[in-house]
């Protein structure tokens, strides 16, 4: 596979990640509005594997970012590095949380994921509107370079944002399930 092929592949994964994030949120809302039945059972089943799914997305995101910098030789800017600083530890943290079935993983996953998402939002809009200037950018490593720009809007920071959004959603789903179990007792 070429770098162009992998760019499209990761862009499609990113859009799938957004779709899954929206679907999970809609499912949770629908299960709260309706009677406890099939939807609530589906939410519970999803929550039971939520940390594993979040780990998988963090792992693929990390491997993708390593590919783009080490194999494709894209130079990461400062904002890319900060997003990586937030994402890379999540691979290990989510793996440990999933293995331990730690329903309170949100306490240590969400701070990293929220900071990473905030940086990714800023970086995404910076690449969407590259005429802006940023204090993060340098001439040698500009934050506005679009190494990936698939479908007219999917950039590397957009991909990172989709991963952070999914990790946050799944972690919150697991935390919601833990709260529901405490409330049911």
Give the secondary structure arrangement, pairings included.
Blueprint: H1 3-33, H2 38-48, H3 50-71, H4 78-100, H5 106-128, H6 156-184
Helix pairs in contact: 1-2, 1-6, 2-6, 3-4, 3-6, 4-5, 5-6
What report would you give on this structure?
The chain is mostly helical and 185 residues long. The N and C termini lie far apart (53 Å). The mean pLDDT is 91. The protein is elongated, with a radius of gyration of 18 Å. The protein is 75% helix and 0% strand. 35% of the residues are buried. It has helices spanning 3-33, 38-48, 50-71, 78-100, 106-128, 156-184. It has one domain: Bromodomain-like (Up-down Bundle), CATH 1.20.1550. It is built from 6 helices and no strands.
Q: Portion of residues in helices?
A: over 70%
CATH architecture: Up-down Bundle
Q: Largest sheet, if any?
A: none
- The total count of helices amounts to 6
> Compute the gyration radius: what is it?
18 Å
CATH topology heading: Bromodomain-like
Give the overall pLDDT as a whole number.
91
Number of strands: 0
Class computed from helices, strands and strand pairing:
mainly alpha
CATH class: Mainly Alpha
N- and C-termini, Cα separation? 53 Å
Q: What's the domain count?
A: 1
Overall outline: elongated
Q: List SSEs in N-to-C order.
A: HHHHHH
The parts where pLDDT drops under 50 for at least 5 residues are none
Query: How much strand content do the residues show?
Result: under 5%
Defining traits:
185 residues, mainly alpha, Bromodomain-like, 6 helices, 75% helix
């Amino acid at each position: 596979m070429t770098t162009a092929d992998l760019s499209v592949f990761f862009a499609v994964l990113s859009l799938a990640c957004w779709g899954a994030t929206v679907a999970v949120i809609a499912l949770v809302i629908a299960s709260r509005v309706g009677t406890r039945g099939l939807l609530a059972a589906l939410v519970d089943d999803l929550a039971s594997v939520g940390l594993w799914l979040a780990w998988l997305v963090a792992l693929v995101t990390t491997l993708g970012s390593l590919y783009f910098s080490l194999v494709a030789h894209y130079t990461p800017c400062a904002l890319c590095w900060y997003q990586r600083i937030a994402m890379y530890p999540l691979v290990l943290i989510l793996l440990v949380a999933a293995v331990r079935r730690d329903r309170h993983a949100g306490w240590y996953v969400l701070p990293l994921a929220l900071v990473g998402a905030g940086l990714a939002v800023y970086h995404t809009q910076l690449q969407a509107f590259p005429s802006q200037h940023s204090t993060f950018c340098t001439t040698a490593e500009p934050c506005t370079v679009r190494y990936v720009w698939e479908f007219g809007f999917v950039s590397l920071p957009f991909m990172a944002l989709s991963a952070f959004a999914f990790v946050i959603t799944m972690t919150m789903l697991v935390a919601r399930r833990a709260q529901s179990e405490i409330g049911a007792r």
